[in-house]
Amino acid sequence: MNGIEPHHDLRTRDRAGREGHAAPAAELVPDAVSWWGWVTFASFFAVSAIPFVTTGPLAFNGVISFWIAFFTWFIWIPSLSYYIIKAVDRIKAEDEAAGRVNA
To answer: Could you give the CA distance from residue 47 to residue 59 in angstroms, rounded to a whole number?
Structure first.
């Protein structure tokens, strides 16, 4: 590797000394939260119409531009934060078990 060591080495050895790969990591957030992020992303396309529309559902105070974008974002961010904060201890424990902690 040209003298550069990778940060995480996924190779492991079994009891017989054969090289293999580590089990896949647990997901950071549930799939529903990830998909809701895409819904939030899509809802912000309506916000791009605000400079061109003064009345109706795409106006600044309209149903689509304000309320849908507002609520999708304010549901997604707290749920995403909850699962990421919840995963910190699990990730630390996984790193300690694998011997990747330098502190």
So the answer is: 8
On whether residue 9 sits in a domain, the answer given is no
45-50, long-range: CB < 8 A, 24+ apart: none
Give residue for tokens 């902690």: 101
Answer yes or no: is 25 within a domain.
no
- Cβ atoms 79, 36 nearer than 8 A: yes
**Res. 77: pLDDT tops 90:** yes
Judged against a pLDDT cut of 60, whether residue 3 lies above it is answered with no
The answer as to whether 71 is a domain residue is yes
Q: What is the tally of structural domains in the chain? A: 1
Q: What are the angstrom distances between the C-alpha of 76 and each of 15, 39, 79?
A: 44, 9, 5
CB-CB contact of 90 with 98 (8 Å): no
Q: Which domain holds residue 63?
A: 31-98
- 103 assigned to some structural domain: no
The DSSP letter of residue 23 is: P
